[in-house]
């Protein structure tokens, strides 16, 4: 959890694709409860938007 907090704190405004991937990677290591799953779903949606905007 400390690594996740450090990753999130390092983001100035909107996370980049690389920052989003790092946060998702850390979330994958956590227990899958409802809140974690909702956050992962939201980040995956955000990642999809970022990917489509950069191509």
Question: What does this protein structure show overall?
Answer:
The chain has helices at 2-10, 17-28, 34-54. It has 55 residues and is an all-alpha fold. Helix 2 packs antiparallel against helix 3 (34-54). The longest helix has 21 residues, at 34-54. 2% of the residues are buried. The mean pLDDT is 89.
Task: Quote the average pLDDT.
Answer: 89
Unreliable sequence segments: none
Global outline: globular
Distance between the termini: 32 Å
Extended strand count: 0
- Run of helices and strands: HHH
Question: What portion of the residues fall into strands of 2 or more residues?
Answer: under 5%
Give the proportion of residues in helices: over 70%
CA-based gyration radius: 11 Å
Q: How many helix segments?
A: 3
Key terms for this structure?
mainly alpha, 55 residues, 3 helices
Summarize the structure.
This protein is mainly alpha-helical and 55 residues long. The chain contains 3 helices and no strands. The mean pLDDT is 89.
Topology:
Blueprint: H1 2-10, H2 17-28, H3 34-54
Helix pairs in contact: 1-2, 2-3
């Amino acid at each position: 959890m400390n690594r996740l907090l450090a990753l999130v704190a390092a983001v100035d405004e909107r996370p980049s694709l690389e920052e989003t991937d790092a946060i998702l990677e850390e979330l994958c290591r956590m227990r899958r409860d409802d809140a974690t799953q909702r956050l992962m779903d939201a980040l995956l949606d955000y990642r999809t938007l970022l990917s489509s905007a950069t191509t």
